Amino acid sequence: MPAATRPRPDLATDLVSAFLFLLLSAVGGWFAFVSLAFRHWGDQDAGPEPYDWTPILTIGALALWLLAVTALAWRGRLRVTAVLHGLLLTAVLLTGGANYAYQHRHDHDPKPEPLPSNYQPCFSGSGRCN
Fold first, then answer.
1. CB under 8 Å to 82, separation ≥6 — which residues?
2. Nearest CA among 55, 53, 87, 54 for reference residue 70
3. pLDDT, tens digit, for every residue of 18-41?
């Protein structure tokens, strides 16, 4: 049957599916949080690192999951599930974007000039160091 003639599921079915999908999304969100929070746990300081794609791919996978659940729930006429996961998708994307902007806010600041090779700091505070 086409979606227009198909009957809309009752509210109980919508709420149960919203809860179950929310539980699956929470498990995915917890995995994303743990993988991002502890990804540098045992690293040694080995100099400059290449660009880290882990946060972008993790947040992207979580957002793709939420988008798929939202789209399928909307197509299946489960409005509570679709709206709930759409709001959750919006929150994940806004939080991820704000975090990215915060992490990279000083990327294009000018670097200070290097000090001369014969520079000796003056710690006396008088300004007359030898």
1. 70, 71, 73, 74
2. 87
3. 999 999 999 999 999 998 888 877
